[in-house]
Amino acid sequence: MIVIVDYGMGNLRSVEKAFERFGFPVKVTDNPSEVIHAEKLVLPGVGAFRDAMDGLRQRGLIEPVKNSIRSGKPFLGICLGLQLLFSKGYEDGEHEGLNIISGKVVRFDFPENKTNGRLKIPHMGWNQISFMKKRIPILSNVPNNVYMYFVHSYYVCPDDESVIATKTEYGVCFTSMIWYKNIYATQFHPEKSQEFGLTLLKNFGNL
Amino acid sequence: MLAKRIIPCLDVKDGRVVKGTNFLNLKDAGDPVEIASLYDKEGADELTFLDITASHENRNIILDVVKKTAEQVFMPLTVGGGIRGIDDIRRLLTAGADKVSINTAAVKEPEFITKASRRFGSQCIVIAIDAKKIQGNSEAQKWEVYINGGRIPTGLDAISWARTIEKKGAGEILLTSMDFDGTKNGFDIELNRTISEMVNIPVIASGGAGKVEHFYDVFTKGKADAALAASIFHYREISIQSVKEYLIRNGIKTRIYK
Predict the structure, then answer these.
(1) Does residue B138 lie within any of the structural domains?
(2) Structural domain includes residue B186
(3) Active-site positions, per UniProt (chain B) (predicted)?
(4) Which among A81, A200, B50, B83 is placed 20 to 30 Å from B124, CA to CA?
């Protein structure tokens, strides 16, 4: 059973429907015991870093999520679910994250450019992901430099660059996906990225 | 680099698409779910539903449409029309919408933008501006904001309103030129450029698309981040694919999806 963690942050229906489409048993829950017993865990989410940590804390989900990740079961973080893995987030002050991956989450900060104007924030829309590693299991049958759908104003900066699976260019070359052992996490939304986003989710289901 | 987005818009009334049903090979040309699916296959970058249901009793039908669409189509979906409160937004997002587009309620209570973006994240709060040129002799062109589907002038200046909504926490602006809408003579380049240069959030240009060249113009001269069109896609006058091919041939970054 794939368990999608519901902690009050955003639309989880698309993620659930995508797994259902491929026939994977899937459940959306905020029950800590179901999170602990999940075979595979998905942490989606959009919104603010601190609200998300509060949402997890209030539902008693922080330790269950951390334990599931530590136990080596496949984990997929999406968008905010990637950012929460990090040590610290800097959205409206400094906030502790789940501290699974060492590093921080910072805001895009673009200077005024007289000729082209400033890059808009949020980074919203379709952008390409460049593979930084070979044979990333959940990117099997996904072409390099494929377009995925992004919506975010903050991005992750891992201390250890070896966790970086893909990078994307938007004013800066930022980490758009990480892969470390059983941990996969994307800044983009595979559930909103049509065919190749669905391929990624299918690959995760098949891990 | 970020691709320019092409967004088809469907006008939905009582759960049915009300204009542009010239689709071939569709079982039910008025079914928003089936048309959404078709646009998905054609490479639309997002979809927008504009709910123009008038009667209060039928307002929940859109939720069912959104639910069914989200089960079929794995791309960003924005829903606008008739959003009055936090609860309307919550219901739409829970049904599977990714963003909501708000016009009248934001003008009537600008704090609503802040409340909504704090509650759901600014990325899902799109503020729609319906702007109409103010005729006058002054040097700088001005536009006035209209509400209630373009029926009521507000006296608000579109440029300063755009700045206000950015400050209040909107994630995106859907900018419709009332002067150009329906003309097929191209987007209002001046309006789009002026607003897009003024704010630091993405601007979706709307109103006036008639030819592939118009999309090129609004992305280059008009500085838009995305372009929305309804009738030219509905009536199959231009395909999304042909717009994208034209843009790529002319050096605009866009996403070809097959």
Answers:
(1) yes
(2) yes
(3) 11, 130
(4) A200
